[in-house]
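The protein record filed here:
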Amino acid sequence: MPDTRPGITFNEEGVCSACQSYENRRNVDYKERFEELRKLCDKYRGINGLNGYDCMIAVSGGKDSHFQVYVMKELMHMNPLLVTVEDNFPMTEAGMHNIKNISEAFGCDIISMKPNIKAQKKIMRHTFEKYGKPTYFIDRYIYTYPLWMAMKFNTPMLVYGENVAYEYGGKDAVETYSARDQIYNGVGYGIPLEEIIGEGVTMKDLNFFEPPCKEIIDKLDPIYLSYFVEWNSFKNYQIAKRYGFHDLTHEWDRTHHVENFDQIDSRAYLVHSWLKYPKFGHASATDYAARMIRYGLLTREEAVKIVNERDGKLDPLCVRDFCEFCGYTEEEFWKIVDSLYNRDLFKKNQFDKWVLKEPLK
């Protein structure tokens, strides 16, 4: 994992914080942690009556969402209400199947929010062109909307998946079960509200865009499930498949990913995660290859080869869906992307292609 990843740290031996976190698992008694989760569930079980919702789970329909619902419904015997935010982009066949399947497989109600598309398009263009963060609008809702719904449905126990900063390296990488501060992790935070409002966008267009006040959030008990169970993306995937989760096999082989089961709901959204590449010199292929090395699924040599082949190759279908949604020509899109390349990390080669000055070896 390169040191250009925002917020990542390294120890004196050059080991990144993500690997340090993974190595620390050997010091954790996960049976004891699982009992902690059970006691926490006992605290909230039946909070809204015998047949009422007693927790809320923020889901997308993905493999980790399936795993979260599996743990809370099948193992903890809670009665969760699922809440999701749609990104409004054209969905893959797998994505359409999975959001339906997670309700059917586990017998759960889902509340889904489709944010204001007119406002989304205007804000997307601004945050893409200025910050290289086109899905900031959606990402912020992903973090704020479940907080509002947990308050409205009196389900203080709000369940998220993994603590991304701690598991994969990032700012404020502290091992904690509490996800109360997740809203400040930088994905859906950091752009001044006054920049968002304007050019036809008002606060009336941004319901739930701002999180509840601190007094309300302090009454909630948002948790990271990864604190209580030994989080493993591939294990989660295997469990999700047993309950009907579909990956992208036979549907789409993405040019810039190394797997076919993560972030598969829509194509246009993946422009956001890929934009780490021009800004920081690494993207989804690096993220997953590093994870696979930790899991013992790849050697570093195997991973380097895959990353060099795939990391910089944003899939054309992602570009097409993104441009159609936002109203860009592909020429306009690539001109904006060109402006986002970090000149300290990249240079143009003889084919007018951006390449890393220091390729991964």
Summary: The chain has two domains: 17-234, 254-356. The chain has a mean pLDDT of 95. The two ends are 12 Å apart (CA to CA).
